[in-house]
Design a protein that fits this description.
Structural class: mainly alpha
Strand content: 5-15%
Radius of gyration: 27 Å
Largest sheet: 3 strands, antiparallel
């Protein structure tokens, strides 16, 4: 490599070395999580943004209001649990067995919500009060959503989290059959409970929620650092390239 412009190259090399030094610090366990366990900068920032995201994902008042209107609404539907993608499970027999086991798990969760469920292979026949089913699901989701700290390892909380997942899958399998029968409103209720109740409960399990207003300084600092750090790397490459004779300049116009 021939250095034709020593000044720009030295500037670029300095920026690259300092960039890598800061990167080493970021990847070192210099931070601590909510429980005092060491974590690196990426894990720290990921946890921080998850906390903010959890707080903004609390739609349970809206979900409860929607569910309250469904009391006495009866649903009866036949739902088929999908088999695994052939790419994931090429053996037809194993794929069928997986779908059958999934159907049993979803049926158990739906039964816990108050529905009457009959299962044959991977086909579920579901009957029940939509209000009672979604009210149960919402209550479980709220409980799981609230779990933080050392409570995440308690068997009963882990069981409730799995129940939320199975309810999400079970409700999901009911939506298309309901829509085909013209019961779009009922399907929309299930979708609301799934997206705004069960889904955030499962995804944010164990994550403490924090409002943006209380973390504005840290939020702005992290975003500003991200912008500066990205430009830091870009300019180091730019100056090093200029040092070896490669630059981005407009070509002279031909006369």
């Amino acid at each position: 490599m021939i250095i034709v412009n020593k000044g720009p190259f030295a500037k670029g090399a300095f920026l690259m070395v300092t960039f890598l030094a800061v990167f080493f610090c970021i990847m070192s366990p210099l931070f601590k999580d909510q429980n005092g366990k060491p974590q690196n900068g990426l894990e720290f920032s990921d946890d921080f943004f998850n906390m903010l995201a959890k707080n903004s994902s609390d739609y349970f008042d809206q979900v409860k209001a929607t569910v309250a209107k469904q009391k006495g609404v009866q649903v009866a539907v036949t739902a088929t649990v999908a088999k695994p993608d052939p790419k994931d499970e090429p053996d037809p027999a194993k794929a069928q067995d997986k779908a059958n086991k999934d159907a049993q798990a979803y049926a158990k969760a739906l039964t816990a919500s108050g529905a009457q469920v009959e299962v044959k292979d991977n086909v579920m026949t579901i009957k029940g009060d939509l209000g009672a089913m979604t009210e149960f699901a919402t209550a479980k989701a709220m409980k799981v959503f609230a779990v933080v700290g050392t409570d995440v390892d308690k068997p009963e909380n882990l069981a409730d989290r799995k129940l939320c997942k199975d309810l999400w899958k079970g409700f999901g399998s009911m939506m298309k059959p309901l829509q085909k029968e013209g019961k779009v409103a009922e399907a929309k209720v299930l979708d609301t409970v799934m997206r705004k109740g069960l889904e955030p409960a499962y995804n944010f399990y164990g994550v403490p929620g924090e409002p943006v207003s209380k973390n504005l300084t840290l939020l702005i600092s992290l975003l500003a650092f991200y912008v500066v750090y990205t430009m830091w790397y870009g300019y180091s490459i730019f100056f090093m390239f200029e040092g070896v004779g490669m630059s981005m300049k407009k070509s002279k116009k031909k006369g």
